[in-house]
């Protein structure tokens, strides 16, 4: 996403990040994270230069935000020079506060996408809004054996079940599992595991709208794959044939 050759390169200021549960702090090497997945950069939502005061402003801001991750979600507004930026940080509901914090640091330094947290930086105001433009698709390399159509149908059914759970009425804001749900479904001798989450700035209703939009991307992301996920800046899901979240 960014070139190192020149001191005036621009870095797009969107990163979508998640990471595996290993504890990592300020690791710049992707090798060590063992879990680099993907990122999106949207130049239209702003760029900044490496080692600029803007970057250090962002870093300082993230440092402060990292101290208030107790329920796994934080958003903030800041300014550097004449620019205003908006930051959202969301950690997966099963990530501890310290995992969440280290994930955030890694997210900022590697601009990668992983498993456990999500960092979104933009100069466009996106709080409470559902993003219909930016989607990341990731899938398990393995195809399912047997009836693909049936498997897709079962996956969709699990996702709709999780959507109900994610948008349940009786849930408390400012908790780690607010608009977060996990679940599983037996498929003969196998089991399908799923996770779903919205960023906590959304209303429950908009969470539901966001989830519909990502579930609709299931064929595009994961047709016949043993696992997969769709992420956008407001919500995400993942499914696998093995457990991947902590109980
Ligand atoms: C680390 O990453 C570099 C660059 O992608 C690669 O060439 C190297 O083989 C990796 N090393 C290990 C131990 O994975
Ligand atoms: C729901 O999303 C729409 C479109 O993204 C936004 O304009 C609206 O303000 C949101 N509603 C609430 C209650 O947050």
Automatic annotation (TrEMBL):
It holds the Pfam family Stress-antifung. It is found in: Secreted. Residues 132-244 form the Gnk2-homologous domain. One of its GO terms (cellular component) is extracellular region. Keywords: Repeat, Secreted, Signal. Belongs to the cysteine-rich repeat secretory protein family. This is Predicted protein. The lineage of its organism: Eukaryota, Viridiplantae, Streptophyta, Embryophyta, Tracheophyta.
């Amino acid at each position: 996403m960014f070139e190192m050759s020149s001191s005036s390169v621009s870095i797009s200021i969107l990163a979508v990040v998640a990471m595996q549960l290993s504890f990592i702090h300020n690791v710049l090497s992707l090798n060590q994270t063992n879990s680099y997945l993907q990122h999106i950069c949207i130049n239209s939502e702003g760029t900044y230069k490496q080692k600029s005061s803007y970057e250090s402003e962002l870093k300082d801001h993230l440092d402060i935000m990292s101290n208030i991750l107790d329920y796994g979600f934080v958003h903030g507004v800041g300014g550097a020079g004449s620019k205003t930026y908006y930051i959202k940080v969301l950690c997966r509901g099963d990530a501890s506060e310290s995992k969440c914090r280290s994930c955030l640091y890694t997210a900022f330094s590697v601009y990668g996408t992983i498993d456990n947290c999500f960092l979104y930086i933009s100069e466009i105001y996106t709080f409470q809004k559902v993003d219909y433009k930016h989607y990341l698709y990731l899938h398990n390399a393995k195809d399912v054996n047997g009836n693909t159509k049936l498997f897709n149908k079962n996956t969709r059914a699990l996702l709709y079940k999780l959507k109900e759970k994610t948008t349940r009425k009786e849930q408390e804001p400012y908790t780690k599992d607010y608009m977060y749900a996990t679940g599983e479904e037996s498929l003969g001798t196998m089991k399908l595991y799923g996770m779903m989450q919205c960023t906590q700035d959304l209303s429950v209703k908009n969470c539901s709208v966001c989830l519909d939009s990502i579930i609709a991307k299931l064929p595009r992301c994961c047709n016949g794959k043993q696992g997969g996920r769709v992420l956008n800046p407001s919500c995400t899901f993942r499914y696998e044939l093995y457990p991947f979240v902590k109980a």
